[in-house]
Amino acid sequence: MIGLNHYLILSGILFSIGLVGVLRRKNLLMLFFSTEIMLNAANVAFAAISNFYNDLSGQMFAFFIIAIAASEVAIGLGLLILVYKKENTLDLDDLASMKG
Predict the structure, then answer these.
(1) pTM for the complete prediction?
(2) What is the chain's pLDDT, residue by residue, as a tens digit (100 residues)?
(3) Going from the N-terminus, what domains does the chain have, and what CATH number goes with each?
(4) Residue 59 contacts by C-beta under 8 Å, 6 or more apart in sequence?
């Protein structure tokens, strides 16, 4: 039977993968994907703990995280398109030398 520990271990593994992705990526698009993985790991943990304690507060918090992640993707992709049109690259090393 799958218990709370299994979900929390899965959440920890997903969060670790996302954290490694945030720390190692040079591409802004992959950086956004890594932050989405980290947010989804938090959602899994909140939903599992909420189910374990028979309380809906964790699931509601996960719902709000999903809404924030959707707005982050919409704004972030819009900014990525503007940066790509201006600089013709999404490489963080090239963008670090930007002025202003």
Answers:
(1) 0.82
(2) 899 999 999 999 999 999 999 998 788 888 888 999 999 999 999 999 999 999 999 999 999 999 988 888 889 888 888 888 888 887 877 766 656 5
(3) 4-95 (1.10.287.3510)
(4) 46, 47, 50, 51
